[in-house]
């Protein structure tokens, strides 16, 4: 009977259920939360024994559901339950919890009703308790303690090399990075994250690799180090995404990098995909994606539709971008400038300020296009006036701008230098060109692509998202549980 | 003071003197010697150890590299500029907390931005721009480069050329000259498409030549397809795209084949 990681924890025997109700003031939390936590613990245990990663993933999801209801007493009770009270991990973790007046070493009272008498403290359970404490601290906004706790957990993690721990580990990495981000010290952990990524790659821990890559990208992008982020991303090994959330985060970071590098088409695709893949609950994330997507589309010269800005819950956040789009659509430089100034605080916070500056060029282009469509012939001085070019020599500027626009194919016209005017060419019949063919082709390609991706996604092993178990799987699970029970019973026999 | 540090400072003084004298060869020699000496300091990147003389060593190394950058501009060597600038960069970014700000920092950053612009590496230009904190953008050197890029993108080339007059620092001149050349090519390209013809005078003005002869020489070398008739330059409009009656067959075939392939996959 192997506890593969021979750690420093001994078997613990719970005292027989002492029905002594302790000072009920302490167990003020509804016992149901504690009960749930214990069920989760048993789930993890069974998952660890059966090497079933899915159960551990499920345990984590259940924990997330309980997040709101955690309180110090509950957490400490759980710790007492799961870890030996005198052992080192227990002492360490308890030290992170804030001390409350009515906090005492809870003798396992109401707790021990559920579980079997013999308990092994598995590494999984230990890591899980680390995770729980960390989540609790972060929710309580005690970021410096969270920092210390997470650093200790990471140190502990380095010694444990089991696939079942991977899922817990990746959550731990995430909260580790989060706690440092809140205290503003992200740069410190960059070295650690890189080392962890290296270890995860060596151990073929794909989920860990994915999570760490995303965390590293986030780290670099936080400090605007786009160059380094791109270098890392291009060299890191890529594989099929294991987790939807990680995939959408990766796409978002990729989109950001591509935008800054002026590769707008790629960026647009990535950002749109990220917004689509993101879970509906992640509103903040989706808002960010949409903001960047809007700007990229503006930079490409397309105007996003109004419906983009009217999505549920996003209206207020997207308001500045809506007004910006308006200014670009009309092609009015003055309006653009005023909008940019009005919302400059928002833009700086979103770090899109530099991109907005790049938009000026687009505003002029759109204005020029409108003019060329509406006038068959217009003098350059009038163009300068309409575009509101506020420079010393507007006519000459206008002339060069128009000639560049013609060269880039944005407008179809010729300039008559002597008379100083621009003559627009007639726009021919579009249907006689290849334009419709191109448009159809891109749409067809998109639909086929989506179909392929859907088919590929089907091939994955049934997601842990899927709660329903087919009859066959249930039988299988029951059989496993029976074996487990027999196993444990045999153990007991061996003992005595 | 540390003997090594003293030695380096002495060499540095001689180096600075040579630079002022515009003595390129001596400066280059001294620079290579200085670089070798710098390798013995342990407090410099990438080690960044904390030694008692760390601050002085870092400051002197940074000054050396700044001068190296300026020297490479004088020599007109863009590769050397790039190398020295990359070596200088950690001093600005990672060692920011340990050293007081260098007065030339913004100027050198602006110079780098200009170099990227001239070499048409716009993506890197923007990446570098992102790294700068907001207050650096107010600095005249950097603002100059940013506005230059904007004018270049918009196509207001005359603004680019007038900006030549307003350089914040004379070391910018080298790059501005290169830029002028690029701009001229761009203007020629645009004019070709935008105008049917231009009188010789106008063409000369737009392309910024000082005499007709230069203009003619330029046309002969770069754009032989332009005709010169009756005192005006006629751009080749005859080969303008006639409404394309041919079907891009290869592309259509590719597309249709891919549709067929994908549809077959649908079970």
Quick overview of this protein structure:
The complex is a heterodimer of chains A (496) and B (267). Chain A is mostly helical and 496 residues long.
Descriptive key words:
heterodimer; A: mainly alpha; 3-stranded antiparallel β-sheet; 5 strands; disordered N terminus; B: 267 residues; mainly alpha; 3% strand
Give the strand content of chain A: under 5%
Using the CA coordinates, give the radius of gyration of chain B: 26 Å
Poorly predicted ranges of chain A (pLDDT <50, ≥5 residues)?
1-29, 100-119
Radius of gyration of chain A: 30 Å
Into which percentage range does the β-strand content of chain B fall? under 5%
Q: Report the helical percentage of chain A.
A: 55-70%
Q: Give the tally of β-strands of chain B.
A: 3
- Helix count of chain B, per DSSP? 12
Describe the overall structure.
- The complex is a heterodimer of chains A (496) and B (267).
- By secondary structure, chain A is mainly α.
- Chain A has 22 helices and 5 strands.
- The radius of gyration of chain A is 30 Å and the shape is elongated.
- The two termini of chain A are 16 Å apart.
- The N terminus of chain A is likely disordered.
- In chain B, strand 2 and strand 3 form a beta hairpin.
- Chain B is extended, with a radius of gyration of 26 Å.
- Chain B is mainly alpha-helical.
- Chain B has a 3-stranded antiparallel sheet.
- The termini of chain B are far apart.
- Chain B contains 12 helices and 3 strands, in the order H-H-H-H-H-H-H-H-H-E-H-H-E-E-H.
- In chain B, helix 4 crosses helix 5.
- Classes of the chains: A mainly alpha (496), B mainly alpha (267).
- At the A-B interface, helix 18, helix 20, strand 4 and helix 21 of A face helix 6, helix 7, helix 8, helix 9 and helix 12 of B.
- Chain A: Acts as a regulatory subunit of the 26 proteasome which is involved in the ATP-dependent degradation of ubiquitinated proteins.
